[in-house]
From TrEMBL:
<feature type="region of interest" description="Disordered">
    <location>
        <begin position="250"/>
        <end position="282"/>
    </location>
</feature>
<feature type="transmembrane region" description="Helical">
    <location>
        <begin position="469"/>
        <end position="487"/>
    </location>
</feature>
<feature type="transmembrane region" description="Helical">
    <location>
        <begin position="207"/>
        <end position="227"/>
    </location>
</feature>
<keyword id="KW-1133">Transmembrane helix</keyword>
<feature type="transmembrane region" description="Helical">
    <location>
        <begin position="115"/>
        <end position="136"/>
    </location>
</feature>
<dbReference type="InterPro" id="IPR036259">
    <property type="entry name" value="MFS_trans_sf"/>
</dbReference>
<feature type="transmembrane region" description="Helical">
    <location>
        <begin position="499"/>
        <end position="520"/>
    </location>
</feature>
<feature type="transmembrane region" description="Helical">
    <location>
        <begin position="432"/>
        <end position="457"/>
    </location>
</feature>
<feature type="transmembrane region" description="Helical">
    <location>
        <begin position="178"/>
        <end position="201"/>
    </location>
</feature>
<keyword id="KW-0472">Membrane</keyword>
<dbReference type="GO" id="GO:0005886">
    <property type="term" value="C:plasma membrane"/>
</dbReference>
<feature type="transmembrane region" description="Helical">
    <location>
        <begin position="148"/>
        <end position="171"/>
    </location>
</feature>
<protein>
    <submittedName>
        <fullName>Major facilitator superfamily domain, general substrate transporter</fullName>
    </submittedName>
</protein>
<dbReference type="GO" id="GO:0022857">
    <property type="term" value="F:transmembrane transporter activity"/>
</dbReference>
<feature type="transmembrane region" description="Helical">
    <location>
        <begin position="403"/>
        <end position="426"/>
    </location>
</feature>
<dbReference type="Pfam" id="PF07690">
    <property type="entry name" value="MFS_1"/>
</dbReference>
<keyword id="KW-0812">Transmembrane</keyword>
Length: 545
């Protein structure tokens, strides 16, 4: 048992997601001697996944370049999320969930870069076209069409950023950059509403469209010139998930022998000197030359995958069979939808007695979840990375994706306090500071839960991460639309206390789900890995890796 994470009953089997990240003991130094490690204070950390020997492998890029690319991608995610608020979220959410399903196979087959640039370019042209028509017509259908085009075209920058984190960073580095992505999305959702309201009231709704076009036009140029392709076809041997850690050297040798009998190389059987053969299928020549800047600008690099596009459209839905994906979809959808549920109800609550807020003051109340979202992303990210390294050391150098799930405990406490506190504070008409504070606390809890669950998805199912994040976007779009559409009627029929008590319970289920995965997640990962039904479904949909 590794720190409460139950070991599978079947010993000696490879469990996806379980990796060596530390080699503090002589025993582990022997096991990982031929694997590549970090530098500086991370010199004892085994790099997961193992980078190839190609200078064009994003894992081998200079750290500064990785960070710049990550920040620029997150900037785009924030802009896409924020400008969606300019155009009304209801229609953009529906079109986003459809586009996420249609475009994720294209990103896997041809790479993320061309898909992102084409989508954003389409969004800009679409909004320019329908905003021009609006100047000559008041037909509401043009507004619906424009919002749908914008939502569909901006969807890629939201879900492809998260899978790009897995392309660029090793497992012990991902927490911060996934939290950065979360910050961008939540900041866009929160601040976008405030900015859009000010633009519409101060200038006109047409200017909201124009600002969206201006911002995204500038961003697509940044994306083209400064964000190279992050998708890279790396041999499967670099995904160094390990076999079960056995108690002694004899056990490890027996495990290696068993693997060899099954036709698999031992987990540590890499070539001497830390170099790994990359000339096998799926790899690249060792002597590959670094790309020039002009070469990195090209949009078409050939097919990165031979999968069938039309079958692959179902691939995101198939990933819901993976527990990590299902949990992330549930957690993220609830976090965003419930934040919107409170936002939608704010106007009717704070403009009435005893608060009597002006419209501008109601808009400023949305800044509370913005602060909560920022803290809920920036604080857990570095803490989660520290937990990874610290608990792995205590676990004989072996990292389990479930380690991060301990943060579900503060998310549970803060979430119940936030949602229940908001409902009770409004019901008992206490000072406005209390409901505004609890609104921010609920946002903090929702972001912690969604960040941890999305990181768990990436660590457990990295090769399915792109499809997984597409279905996360799908779930968010569906639940956000449903909650935004029905929440006022629900509040009118059931009352504040009952509604936010139920919302708090739904959030709590997500936290308890994560804690159950902490205990049983490793066993579940092995069951899923060995499930013929799940593997056949994923392969049929195009995931043949």
């Amino acid at each position: 048992m590794g720190l409460g994470v139950l070991e599978p009953k079947a010993k000696g089997q490879k469990v996806p997601g379980t990796v060596y990240v530390e080699r503090e003991t002589e025993h582990l130094r022997h096991l990982t001697a031929n694997l590549k490690h970090g530098t500086g204070r991370y010199e004892n950390v085994v790099l997961v996944p193992q980078p190839s020997d190609s200078p064009n492998d994003p894992l081998n890029w200079p750290h500064r370049k990785k960070v710049v690319v990550s920040w620029l991608l997150c900037l785009g995610a924030g802009l896409a999320s924020g400008t969606s608020q300019f155009l009304n979220p209801a229609h953009t959410h529906i079109s986003k969930l459809i586009a996420a399903i249609l475009t994720t196979p294209l990103a896997r087959i041809y790479g993320k870069r061309p898909v992102l640039i084409v989508l954003i370019g389409s969004a800009i042209l679409g909004v320019i076209g329908y905003s021009t028509l609006l100047s000559h017509s008041t037909n509401i259908k043009y507004i619906w069409a424009g919002r749908a085009i914008w939502g569909a075209s901006s969807s890629g920058i939201e879900y492809l950023v998260s899978s790009s984190v897995g392309d660029l960073f090793f497992v012990h580095q991902r927490g911060f950059h996934l939290s950065l992505w979360h910050v961008a999305l939540s900041a866009g959702n929160s601040i976008g509403q405030v900015i859009a309201a000010q633009i519409v009231s101060g200038q006109s709704y047409q200017w909201a469209f124009r600002y969206a076009v201006i911002l995204m036009s500038a961003y697509v140029l940044i994306l083209f010139f400064f964000v190279p392709e992050t998708a890279y076809k790396r041999a499967s041997k670099y995904d160094n998930d390990v076999r079960e850690i056995l108690a002694d050297e004899a056990g490890d040798q027996q495990g290696s022998s068993d693997q060899e009998e099954n036709g698999e190389p031992p987990a540590s059987a890499e070539k001497p000197g830390g170099r790994i053969d990359v000339t096998e299928e799926g790899g690249v020549p060792v002597q590959e030359k670094p790309e020039t800047y002009l070469q990195s600008l090209r949009l078409y690099r050939g097919r990165l995958s031979k999968e069938n596009y039309f079958r692959s459209i179902l691939s995101p839905l198939a990933t819901l069979l993976l527990p990590g994906v299902a949990w992330a979809a549930y957690s993220y959808a609830c976090a965003v939808a419930f934040s919107i549920a409170i936002s939608v109800s704010l106007s009717s609550i704070f403009t009435a007695a005893p608060y009597h807020f002006a419209t501008s003051a109601v808009g400023l109340a949305v800044l509370s979840p913005f602060v909560g979202d920022i803290l809920g992303n920036l604080i857990p990210g570095p803490i989660a990375d520290w937990i990874v390294v610290s608990m792995s050391r205590r676990n004989n150098g072996v990292y389990e994706p479930e380690f991060r799930n301990l943060l579900c405990i503060p998310a549970l406490i803060a979430g119940l306090a936030g949602y229940w506190g908001f409902g009770l504070a409004i019901y008992h008409r206490v000072h406005w500071f209390a409901p505004v504070f609890f609104f921010g606390l609920s946002g903090f809890a929702g972001q912690v839960l969604s960040l941890i669950s999305n990181t768990y998805l990436l660590d457990c199912h990295r090769k399915y991460a792109q499809d997984g994040y597409a279905v996360v976007t799908l779930a968010k779009g569906v639940l956000t639309f449903v909650v935004g559409y029905f929440v006022n009627q629900w509040l009118a029929e059931s009352g504040l206390i009952q509604v936010f008590f139920i919302i708090g319970m739904i959030h709590g289920i997500g936290c308890i789900w994560g804690l159950v995965l902490y205990v049983y997640g490793k066993r579940i990962r092995l069951v899923v890995h060995n499930s013929e039904f799940i593997n056949d479904a994923l392969r049929w949909c195009g995931n043949k890796e």
